Known about the structure:
84% helix
Amino acid sequence: xxxxxxxxxxxxxLVGIMWGLKNYLLPQLNSGSNFATLLINxxxxxxxxxxxxxxxxxxxxxxLFKRKSAIMNFTFLVKLPLVHSFIRLYxxxxxxxxxxNLIAQGVELRQIINLMKKQKSRIFSEVGKNLxxxxxxxxxxxxxxxxxxxxxxxxxxxIEYGAIKDKLGLELSLYADExxxxxxxxxxxxxxxxxxxxxxxxxxxxxLLYAAMLLPIYSNMGSGI
Length: 225
């Protein structure tokens, strides 16, 4: 996440500069209506409007998600093209780590499920209830996990493999570490992709700033000759 910090701060700083130019500098330059000036005049409004739209969309999504079960919400999210791999990796790593730690400490599976059902986390509690129903129906732990689309298919295989070796806690912990590593690697790659795009955008905005300031000056110089 550190990779994204600098370009985001730079972008915010640039928007602040454009806002200041729009309100204080450009009116004094009598800058006319060239393209750069028009863009700078409207760009802060576009940014703030986009931010407000994202905020409202997020608030609406949170409100709608609260009305449905957490499992349904995450099942929907893991079907989205751009974010499904991140969400499944995160959930797989999160649950594998928790299960691995508890099993390694000697906690029985039924006790783990009962603990899950009592948690404040909606997704943790609902997964616990779902597993409880599946186990009561006669299915094994790995079969119950494999039916949940939230997790990577390899998780149920690791559970089966760990159970066969009688090292389920250790195998789940190792698998969780691998999933976390993949998750943060994906995040870093995404940030490394976004960062150059932000820098290019910032560079274009700086060019526009110079154009908005210098074009009126050159125009006045040309008209005065």
